[in-house]
Amino acid sequence: MSLNLVWHVENPNELCVDAAQKQQPRWKLVGLLLTMGLGLLGTASVAENASNPLAAVNNTDFRLQGKSADAGDTYDFFIDGAYMVTPRLKLKYELHYLSTDVIGTRENGLEKLVLKPIYFPSEGQLSGGWGYRTAVGFDLIIDLGDQAKGIGIGTNQFAPLVGVAFSHANSGWTLIPLAQHFTDIGEGPDISQTSGRLIALKPFGDANWFKVDAKIPYDWENETWPITAEFQIGRTIRDGIGLYADALVGVGADRPYDWGLGVGLRLNY
Q1: Which of 93, 128, 153, 186 has the most neighbouring CB atoms within 10 Å?
Q2: What total number of domains does the chain contain?
């Protein structure tokens, strides 16, 4: 069974802001990077997409995401990678560096380190050409930020997760429902957030993919629903190298940001 999955869990607590709307000239740079990334798309393919946490590949992605909120703009430069420890265990990792003006002045610094082991205990076949694979794991989120700069949330977090992926052999569609709960560990502010997530992933053409990723968290401390959605389109341009672009949108009155754009460079090895 071949599954194309995407696991990328973010903690929406870290993006909530509340100040006046500002001009965002730096979005021209994000738009330029987006245009350049899509313009470089070529023709090649690889056997497995590294966006799939079940793929037997190691990868490192270099990503930039910019988000616009009432307080200003935030740019997230981060490494997003994975390493197959065993055929059933993958270790995903992220390191985030932020540039933000949410406190009124432009500040820069490391935000967080995320270590995410994911174990795949079972898989099988269902009727109608569908297969499934289960997953359990957790996020260990180490806060590296400085709240005085508007970076980080001031506490480390632990977030267990469970999920199952359903993959259709003929159409290529993969659907992944996921549930995760974030809680604070150690000193700092109280965190308690339960997140439901649904990912739909579809390959197309000889080396392309499209993803929709809806996150629906409930913040128990603040009694809010900071809902977001992400749309991604990408292409493998040659063996071991891929490019993709993201469009992000916040949903509802409690949205952590209004909209955003992103680009990514993927290296498989």
Answers
A1: 153
A2: 1
Query: In this structure, what DSSP letter does residue 266 have?
Result: E
Q: Which two tokens stand for residue 253?
A: 């009155």
| CB under 8 A, 24+ apart: contacts of 209-218 | 209/4, 209/49, 209/51, 209/233, 209/234, 209/235, 209/244, 211/6, 211/51, 213/6, 213/8, 215/10, 215/12, 217/12, 217/193, 218/193, 218/194
> Measured between alpha carbons, how far is residue 223 from residues 9, 45, 227, 254, 264 in Å?
20, 45, 13, 10, 33
CA 70 to chain centre: 22
Residue of 96 and 13 predicted with greater confidence: 96
In order of 104, 107, 205, 207, the CA distances from 197 in angstroms are 33, 31, 27, 26
Rounded to two decimals, the pTM is 0.80
Residue 17 belongs to domain spanning: 12-268
Q: How far, in Å, CA of 157 to CA of 263, rounded?
A: 27
Does 5 map to a domain?
no
Positive or negative torsion for Cα 227, 133, 158, 110: negative
Taking the C-alpha atoms of residue 32 and residue 244, their distance in angstroms, rounded to an integer, is 14
Q: Which of 20, 53, 58, 6 is nearest to 214 (CA)?
A: 6
SS3 13: helix
Note whether residue 98 is domain-resident. Answer: yes
Looking up residue 89, the CATH number of its domain turns out to be 2.40.160.40
Q: What's the pLDDT band for 217 if we cut at 50, 70, 90?
A: very high
Band of residue 130 on the pLDDT scale cut at 50, 70, 90: very high
Q: Taking the CA atoms of the chain, what radius of gyration do you get in angstroms? A: 18
Evaluate whether residue 29 is within a structural domain: yes
262 in a domain, yes or no?
Answer: yes
